[in-house]
Amino acid sequence: MIKAIVFDIGGVLEITPRTGWVERWEQQLGLAADSINQQLHDLWLGGSIGTISEQVVEAGIAERLGLDSSQLAAFLADLWAEYLGKLNAELAEFFASLRPRYTTAILSNSFVGARQREQAAYGFEDICDLIIYSHEEGLKKPDPAFYRLACERLKVQPHEMIFLDDIDVVVEAARNLGIKAIHYHSNQQAIAEIQALLAAA
């Protein structure tokens, strides 16, 4: 029996195409291609698992790239615009409709500051029972411990959970634990596969 249904955010509940903002900043600052992500790699990693605060991330960006306060504000605006993308309204509505028949949750590889911004933009906390963010837990998909944490929080066994994500290795890792994981390709496909699993349970 399925008891819990868990969705990813980026590329699933949020439509997040690449905006080219990093490349634009490299050109604007006269930096080599791919250099920004290399220079900020440890900040991106630390921010994604919460080992550093949002304030430390922002200070590090400004220092390493030599940005003044207005440039930093513009840089962060571009970063969050791509991160948040736009709401996948059809899928979010379907996700919300699964309550209260099922316990629903979000399991997201995230970044410091994401909870507040995503709640303000899309109200994710209002459409599901639980949100588990990597930056708040110090774990990331596809680490098996992150999925086990989700099962523990939701009080379910892996085979009692449906999980929807758009990344191959993340889906495969969930399946390896016995979770009924679906690889997201489109709303129609994902909704049909979820409904089929629920009907068969």
UniProtKB/TrEMBL annotation:
InterPro entries: ACAD10-like, HAD-like_sf, HAD-SF_hydro_IA, HAD_sf, PGP-like_dom2. It comes from the Bacteria. CDD domains: HAD_sEH-N_like (cd02603). Pfam families: Hydrolase. PANTHER family: HAD FAMILY PHOSPHATASE, HYDROLASE, PUTATIVE (AFU_ORTHOLOGUE AFUA_1G12880)-RELATED. NCBIfam families: HAD-SF-IA-v3 (TIGR01509). This is Hydrolase. The lineage of its organism: Bacteria, Bacillati, Chloroflexota, Chloroflexia, Herpetosiphonales.
